Structure formats: structure tokens, C-alpha cells
Amino acid sequence: MISSGVLRQKLQSLQGKKFTGRIDIKNSQGKEWRLYFCLSRLIWADGGYHPYRAWERLLNKYCPHLDHHFIDINKAKEFECWNYYLIVSLLQRFLITKEQALFLVNERVKQILFDIYQAENKDKLNYDLVLVEDNFPEESGLRVSITMLKIETVLTSVESQWRQWENLGIASFSPNYAPVVKNPVLLQQKFKGKENTYRKLVSLLNGKFPLIELADKLNLTITKVTLWLKPYFEQGLISLVEIKDQPVQVTLIGISNHDYKITKTTHQQLIICVDDSLQICEIMEHIVTEAGYQYFSIQNPLKALSEILKRKPDLIFLDLIMPIVNGYEICSQIRRVSALKDTPIIILTSNDGMVDRVRSKLVGASGFLGKPIDQEKVLAKIKSSLRSNNSLKSNNPSQTLELSTETGS
């Protein structure tokens, strides 16, 4: 019975003890899993089969619109729980929502627990409790907690799935193994008159995709896919094979320690953001480059005017509150340059008051944008500002000639 399983006993023994640490679990073949706890609540689980493939699968499933170029795998590899660190990093940079982060954590924890239940069904596992005093060290990647899951709640959900697998007679089939056609001639006879279905089946059952990934490709549950293939497994027409994990191959963009950085894209318009906050600059970079504009960020306000003069942007986002030189001063300096006197300048601030708005107008600001940064508002401000500026240039040919002459110098 599930209720008497070793895993449940171990986890239940932690409840009420405010345990912070992890449980290392290993089978006789050397396969390892790790469960992480904070105050006897589950915060993460890892190890087991194909951690890189599992990570890529979960991202594709729950964050389908995420640009993978913003994932810093190299930096993450420095941490024990590299994938958890990445989830926190993506969340903090507003590249995924809190809801998506919770889905990623919950799904991964449940996958690991299910694998452990299945391993218990086949083998005697070794459990080792590792206590951590106060909090996890920096190198663990667990210093920031996304969620703390109740042990009983998670166990109940996973046990329900495992009980279903046992009742359906598929407990011996691992979701982490890949199906491959073993006897194509006999299998084709089973699909007589359904040649298209057979061809599609053979193309998928090539030993490259584990059952859990195959289920996603077919837009079905893992239970349905395994149950559908069960007769063919039992008849020896299809077999399950173990496959190796493949590290995710990604062009990486990490956090830069430079005062500024530039990302070139497809449009000619260049947008500059002057803000001493690295996080704000990265959020703006994502929004602006996703929309197809060139982007340049400046974190050191002392360098703002010289860089703006050198690059002559089409639009400037300017933080109001910065050390040494504030946004009012920089805006006033920009407006003294003839080539930049009509360049749209949007003030960024968390203090959206009437006094700031009036003062910003007096120093030549074109508009105002409140923090926290909202993607739709940023894009709307970019479009309206560039449209107004283009209209101004078309109505003043002499000004356009002057600017183009300076750009070429």
C-alpha cells in the first residue's frame, strides 16, 4: 500500500519539526534524487532522469513565449540547484510571471516524487537526511524561496497519480524511457487501413523522445499515452529504452557589470534608457528589443550626455532619481544641444506627482512614465513619441537636413 511507503514515512516524520535541509535518495543502480525543505515545507526537488531535458520541457510547456536567449545557463551552473536559480532569476527580471514560476516548481517537485514512488516499487532505496543550519548557502541557489509546499498536499496529489498507474497496470513503464519500434512489420499489420497513423507513429517512436515528452507532442496526458501503447509493449512490438540527457544548447545573455550595453536588432530607430538600476535597464532591453528596435542602456548618469551625443538616439527614457546627477539636470543638458532639442525624452519615475510632471515639462521632457515598468505602456509611449517626432521632422524639412548632416559627420 502507498500509505506505508518509505517515502511517505520519511516525509511525514519531518512535519512539525521545522526541518531545513534536504533528503538525498539513491537506488541500487546509483540513480539519485534530492528533496529540499525549509521549515518542513517542500521548496524544490531535483536529480533523477534528464534534468536538462526536463528543464527545457517545462519551459516550453509553461513559458512558451519566453525568449531562451535571456537564460543564463553558464552562470546558473555555478549553483547546486541551477534550474531553481534560473526560475528565480527569470521571475526577478519579470521575464516570467509568478504563476508560471509556481507551475515550474510544482510540476518539477511532483515529477521527482512520482519517479521516487516508481523507484520504490522496483528497488530498495537509501534515504539520507542532510540538515542545514539557518538557511541554504549562496551556492545552493535556494536563498530565495518561490513557494513552500505542504508535504501532505503534494503527497496526496502524487499518490493519486501513482495509484491510477498501478490500477491501470502501467506501473512498470517509466515516463522517462523512450519508446522505439521493435518489430515494424508486425506493427504495421496492426494498423492495416490506417497507413497515415502508422507513419506518424513510427516517426515519433524513434527512441529519441521519452514518454513524458511524447505526451506533450501529442497534446495528451502521460497516462493516456502510456495506456495507449501498453498493448504494443506487451506484444513486444514496441520497447522502452533509456536515453541520455542532453545539455541545453542556448546562446546566453547574462547579467552585465558594465555601465551600459547595446543590443542591435532590425529597426533603424535607436532607443536609449538612462537608469542607474540594472534591473530596470534589463527589463527595458527585453521590451524594446522584442519590439525590434535598437537599444542602448546607460547606468552611469555622468556618462549619459556624452553617450547620447555620440549615438544620437530617436528616443530617450530617463530616470528621474539618480545619484550625483538627476534626471532634470540631464534633460536640461540634452535640450541645450541643437541636434537633440526635439528628441523625445520620457521621464521614468516611481513618484508620479504633479510637481514632478510640471518640473519635467519645464526642463523639456516630452512625457512621463510611472514605475513599475509596464510593457504595454512602454510600447504605447514608444509608438506615440516616434510618430510625433517623425511628423515634426516631415513638417520641418530644414531641421531634418540639419540633423542628417550632423549624423554623417
Characteristic key phrases:
single chain, 409 residues, alpha/beta, Rossmann fold, six-stranded mixed sheet, disordered C terminus
Description:
This protein is of the alpha/beta class and 409 residues long. It has 3 domains: 2-167, no CATH class; 178-241; 260-408, Response regulator (Rossmann fold, 3-Layer(aba) Sandwich), CATH 3.40.50. It is built from 16 helices and 12 strands. It has helices at residues 6-12, 51-62, 73-76, 82-92, 98-122, 151-167, 184-190, 195-204, 211-217, 222-234, 278-290, 304-311, 327-335, 354-362, 375-394, 397-408; strands at 21-26, 32-38, 41-47, 126-131, 178-181, 238-241, 260-263, 270-274, 294-298, 315-319, 345-349, 367-370. α2 crosses α5, α4 packs antiparallel against α5 and α5 packs across α6.
